[in-house]
Amino acid sequence: MIYISWIIYINVLSLISGVNKMNADYFSIKGKDGAFFVYMPHHVEDPEYIIVISPGLAEHAARYNRLSSFLKNHNVQLYCIDHIGQGIYATNLGVWPVNGFEICVNNMKSLIDYAHENHKNKKIVLFGHSMGSFMSLSYIEQFASNIDACILSGTNDQQHPLVLKGGKFIAMLQELFIGRNKNSKILNSLSFGQFNKQFAPNRTEFDWLSRDEKEVDKYIQDPLCGYVPSVGLFKELFKALSTIYKDEMVIKIPKDLPIHLMSGANDPVGGNSKGPLSLLARLEKSKVSNITMQIFDDMRHECLNEIGNDVVMKHVHDTCKNLLSLTDNT
């Protein structure tokens, strides 16, 4: 009941304050750390399974509409969360509070709790893309018993400790001199500026996302995408990336949890598949046994927005069914 009452409250508040009426494709959940928004453009009455999407940095939930439409036609219910500082209801794009990464992971748990309440006895797959895959890794280190399988898309393994230390040091200095809520062009350039080099000569600064120029242009023209994150967001992200790959964290992942890694062969975020392969080895070292991987030839960072995305969407659905079949006797 808390979810429904909060949705009513948000709609009433919108009317009183004079802002636009809430988009019918979204609803709000009051989580442990406050309210957040969830994108659900299609309703499936009796779904085969549930997929919960955790999107990446500098994008938003509505970009997963095409996947939702595809899965709806296969009797699958999709929910996609907008993280803090993300999406149409964000007041400050790319701005996180202290412990923002942990709050996002807690919000994911609240959404999955909601899915369990509203879809009794239905299995749930957590799908995290890019930064959302890092949050999903953190999620399965803490709350894996609440899901049945996990897909990590456009992911990576731990960066070199010196890189993370350098990033945290710059973030600390910038927070001191300009404040944590200011955009960090320096850290943005250091984090993302190198990704386009392998695709030179470049048509845009986001060529690394996809070979499909129309999809890249849609991203650039979307006011909710491509923004420069805040100093505070980078500080919290670097802190999380220094923690989630530690042996004492990875060892908490259940050994029998079905996990699938997927990446483009030319995805610079994962070092052109080196990162996902390294993460696979890390998980296997921790005795996680049900791991599979798919590297898509020629694709870049956003496989779901690539040339041939229909093949990728089918792969996601087929993979979900295969992963869930491993849990049939558990």
Main beta sheet? 8 strands, mixed
Q: What's the CATH topology name?
A: Rossmann fold
- Percent of residues in β-strands: 5-15%
Radius of gyration: 19 Å
Could you name the ranges where pLDDT drops below 50 across 5 or more consecutive residues?
Answer: 1-20
Identify the CATH class.
Answer: Alpha Beta
CATH architecture: 3-Layer(aba) Sandwich
Number of strands: 8
| Form type | globular
Order of helices and strands: HEEEHEHEHEHHHHHEHEH
Question: How does this structure look, described?
Answer:
It is a single chain. The protein starts with a helix and ends in a 5-residue tail after the last helix. Strand 1 and strand 2 form a beta hairpin. Helix 5 packs antiparallel against helix 8. The model is unreliable at 1-20 (pLDDT under 50). The protein has a single domain (22-325), classed as Alpha/Beta hydrolase fold, catalytic domain (Rossmann fold, 3-Layer(aba) Sandwich). The protein is globular. It has helices at 2-17, 65-72, 100-118, 131-142, 161-177, 185-192, 213-221, 231-241, 247-250, 274-285, 309-325, and strands at residues 26-31, 34-39, 49-54, 76-82, 124-129, 149-153, 259-264, 291-296. An eight-stranded mixed β-sheet has the order 1-2-4-3-5-6-7-8, with helices on both faces. Helices cover 40% and strands 15% of the residues. It is an alpha/beta fold and 330 residues long.
